[in-house]
UniProtKB/TrEMBL annotation:
Residues 556-572 have a biased composition (Basic residues). Residues 450-523 form the Cas12f1-like TNB domain. InterPro entries: Cas12f1-like_TNB. GO terms for molecular function: DNA binding. This is Cas12f1-like TNB domain-containing protein. The lineage of its organism: Bacteria, Bacillati, Actinomycetota, Actinomycetes, Streptosporangiales. Residues 550-617 are annotated as: Disordered. Residues 573-589 have a biased composition (Basic and acidic residues). It holds the Pfam family Cas12f1-like_TNB. Keywords: DNA-binding. The keyword Transcription regulation does not apply. It comes from the Bacteria. The keyword DNA-binding applies.
Length: 690
């Protein structure tokens, strides 16, 4: 089996540190203070490099990819910066080693290379500037996406195109320029003119350092030992102001014992030291083509994911018609309430800031008896609103993160249980929210990007391929009887087919009646399987995308029943004791059929073993015998609990015996392994390239 490597990142927390020279134990507060000093120095140095090179000429030199000596620029950012002669300058009065300068130059190089990407996106948008930027036509969208595919290789979402268009329009209005420019050509505007230098993050990229600044080794199966140089003061003046610190880092359970640890990134969040620890592990290689069983997922509003499984057999796609639903109605309602609360707190915070700006300390000095207390009161209210706003934002981020990983875990488990080798998703770059304002707000609040990232990460660990397909038209036509000839009718419910809605899909030609998202999922899996030979793999990111639409119908193929079900029915009906006669002589009745022994409802005077009359099916009004006693708690009188009844199944991990989803109020299809496909005679139109 071919093997590959996948890179993951675990966020760990460093609780304490040991000063290597003296063995002194440092607490979490002292450690966070020293890490923040190092991050502040690196941030200052990196900001100086970016601000000095934020112009067209320097970005052109970086985009050319050639250094001063004529050689190609290396992949490492700090080496590329030094080869261009853009080395970082040490702040006055501060001593930093060459390895600390490397970390700052690496962060600056990443910011400048990201500016090149934004520059290419802006150039592609301005080159295909539409007649009406507020409302692009289909031809305008096709032109801008084709230009982006040529410039940056695709992967640009519709929201990013709209935001950059709005940014460019604002710049033209402020400077009084015309989109046509001179001689009918588009205005050539660079990203350095539209926006200022980016703000550097307060972090320490230790990936650019070597053993003179950091060493990392695995101490045990559940921990690592990080040895790093940290400053002893905010502005270290000499080499003596730096010292080696040993940080015991506990590893989370998701880091395997055989994983290879890489250089981490240090940052301080809410007074705590966070260690973003990358690690690599071997995983099975997922091929891009050659798939026969796949699972496709469609995005919804409340039903975050709706999927279906399909099989490629004899040039056609077959499905069993079983929908896979991950319903997050309650979670979405919770997120909408939190977003409304966040907006209210933001408005209140801005209002207090306006009042505070009107009550300056100088005014309070002139009127100490009246304005001083009011100024302190408004400042306290502003601080409290800002603190509450930050708490609500953190709550939303935590809920979105938990929801995205829970949905991704469920999707990967469904694919593994159903024997699929590839997962097909809608391409978010071609997915556009249309309709009413409220629906657009609900769609924009989804965590689809995080879900796609989580699915790709978990699928890579299990050897599954994740491919995106174009989303245009997946919910418009019938997946059974053809495309372009039979548009689907969208209705609110299956019993209201004459009304207009969006939840239910009905085909007047073939009679299809199913959930709209399920019909779209069937078209997604059909597009993916039929066009898998057109899969494009990005060399930089490894993401796989299908840009060529190959349409074909999906035929319904029922799965056969399991043999255990027939055997279980035979035990219940006693057909194994009385087999069906096979010959005509055996069918001849030779005598009366013997009556089965019957029993009467037992009573205290007549036990069950003495009851031989006809059975009474009426349920008694009260129990004639006492209810069984339970070990814990009480239960009312009634039927005794049956131990042989069906067991309630909840959706969760395939390897989890408790079947947990992470949210107790999420409704999702259970993860069950089904039988093989049947070989029914179903007609399907041949695939055709669109």
């Amino acid at each position: 089996m071919l093997m590959g490597e996948v890179v993951s990142t675990a966020s760990c927390r460093a609780f304490r540190a040991v000063l290597e020279a003296s063995g002194e134990m440092l607490g979490e507060r002292t450690l966070a203070e020293r890490v923040s000093w190092l991050a502040a120095v690196i941030r200052q140095v990196a900001a100086g490099v970016v601000a000095g090179r934020w112009n067209r000429a320097d970005l052109d030199r970086l985009d050319a990819g050639v250094g001063l000596d004529g050689r190609a620029l290396p992949a490492k950012g700090w080496m590329a910066v030094r080869r261009l002669g853009w080395g970082a300058a040490t702040p006055e009065g501060v001593y930093i080693s060459d390895r600390v300068r490397r970390c700052a130059e690496e962060e600056a190089a990443r910011a400048l290379r990201l500016a090149l990407h934004r520059r290419a996106v802006l150039a592609a948008i301005t080159a295909t500037w539409p007649a009406d930027p507020g409302r692009r036509t289909d031809a305008d969208w096709s032109a801008v996406r084709a230009a982006l595919n040529t410039a940056v290789g695709g992967g640009v979402s519709t929201a990013l195109i709209r935001n950059r268009t709005r940014q460019f329009r604002t710049y033209l209005d402020e400077h009084g320029l015309s989109p046509a420019g001179q001689n009918g050509q588009a205005s050539v505007v660079d990203v350095v003119e539209v926006e200022g230098p980016p703000v550097m993050a307060a972090q320490v990229l230790l990936a650019a350092a070597d053993r003179q600044l950091i060493t990392l080794e695995r101490a045990s199966g559940t921990g690592a030992r990080l040895r790093v140089q940290l400053p002893l003061c905010a502005r270290p003046a000499t080499r003596r102001d730096w010292a080696w610190h040993i940080l015991p880092v506990p590893l989370p359970p998701q880091v395997p014992a055989d994983a290879s640890l890489r250089s981490p990134t240090l940052r301080v969040v809410d007074g705590q030291v966070r260690v973003d620890l990358p690690f690599t592990m071997a995983v099975p290689y997922a091929p891009a083509t050659g798939h026969t069983v796949a699972i496709g997922f469609d995005w919804g509003i409340n039903t975050l994911l709706v999927g279906t499984v399909g099989r490629l057999h004899d040039g056609r796609v077959e499905g069993d018609g079983r929908p896979l639903i991950y319903d997050t109605t309650t979670i979405s309602a919770k997120l909408h309430r939190l977003r409304g609360h966040r907006e209210a707190l933001a408005a209140k915070r801005d209002h207090y800031a306006t009042l505070q700006a009107g009550l300056t300390p100088s005014d309070a000095a002139r009127h100490p008896a009246r304005d001083a207390a009011r100024y302190r009161e408004v400042a306290a209210l502003h601080e409290r609103a800002d603190r509450e706003h930050a708490r609500v934002c953190a709550r939303i981020r935590h809920l979105n993160n938990a929801l995205s990983w829970s949905a991704a875990r469920w999707a990967v488990d469904q694919a593994t249980a159903l024997g699929a080798s590839v997962i097909y998703l809608e391409d978010l770059a071609t997915l556009e929210a249309r309709g009413h304002r409220r629906g657009n707000a609900a769609l924009s609040g989804q965590v689809r990007g995080r879900v796609v990232h989580a699915i790709r990460h978990l699928a890579a660990k299990t050897g599954l391929a994740v491919v995106t397909v174009p989303a245009r038209g997946t919910s418009k036509y019938c997946p059974r009887c053809g495309t372009g000839t039979s548009p689907l009718h969208h209705t609110p419910a299956p019993d209201r087919l004459t009304q207009r809605g969006w939840k239910w899909a009905h085909c007047p030609h073939c009679g299809l009646s199913c959930d709209r998202d399920q019909a779209a999922a069937e078209r997604i899996v059909s597009r993916g399987l039929l066009a898998q030979h057109h899969t494009h793999t990005d060399r930089a990111t490894g993401t796989r995308t299908i840009r060529t639409i190959v349409e074909g119908n999906l035929a319904r193929a029922r799965r056969p029943r399991k043999p255990t079900r027939a055997a279980r029915r035979a035990r219940h009906t006693r057909t194994d004791l009385h087999p069906r006669p096979q010959t005509r002589q055996d069918r001849t009745k030779t005598g009366p059929t013997p009556k089965r022994p019957t029993r009467q409802r037992p009573t205290p005077e007549r036990p069950a073993e003495l009851s031989t009359t006809k059975t009474v099916s009426q349920v008694p009004d009260r129990r004639l015998v006492p209810a069984p006693t339970l070990a814990v708690g009480q239960r009312p009188a009634g039927q005794a609990p049956q131990a042989n009844g069906p067991t309630a199944v909840r959706t969760g991990l395939v390897r989890d015996s408790h079947q947990r989803t992470g949210f107790h109020h999420v409704k999702a299809t259970p993860v069950l392994a089904l039988a093989e496909y049947g070989s029914g005679r179903h007609q399907a139109t041949p695939a055709r390239n669109a």
